[in-house]
Design a protein that fits this description.
With 175 residues, this protein is an alpha/beta fold. It contains 4 helices and 7 strands, in the order ββαββααβαββ. The radius of gyration is 19 Å and the shape is globular. The termini are far apart.
Length: 175
Amino acid sequence: MIWEIISGGRKLPVMRIDKVSYRTNPIFEHLYIGMPWTELDYVAGLTTCIPIYKQMKAEFPEVQAVNAMYSNGLIIIISTKRRYGGFAKDIGLRALTTPHGLGMGKIVIVVDEGLDPSDLQQVMWAVSTKFNPAGDLVQIPNPYVRDLDPASQPAGITDKIIIDATTPVSPAGPL
């Protein structure tokens, strides 16, 4: 097997192709791999967004929408209503434990129900105006992430974070 150094300095296998088959009416002519946004980001992203949304909605009916498109990297953005203060952190922790969130989630951003998680301007506005690192950040050291994450050291191990970018409420009880 041939190894080549790519993806942040790690050695990854390189395949040698001897023959190529083709289909007269292909489903996908080809997929571009590289910096987002490519076809692959949108096609594969749906297979992450929808299962995470369904799993979260089944357990937390307050969840309004999920954006886990690969074009955002390993980020899951969730829009939710709140039951109580700190609820966003609970949502973030659960998202990281869904089957898709385990490997594909490295950063979870939770925003208020009125914000569209696919509108990154709205999400960044919420982070810049509602997020206080002193109490709204949860860092989880050394869990698993897909080997594709170039920042993981060693491959497949990285810290994960949850950013609570929701409007602060008292932890005493529901809204």
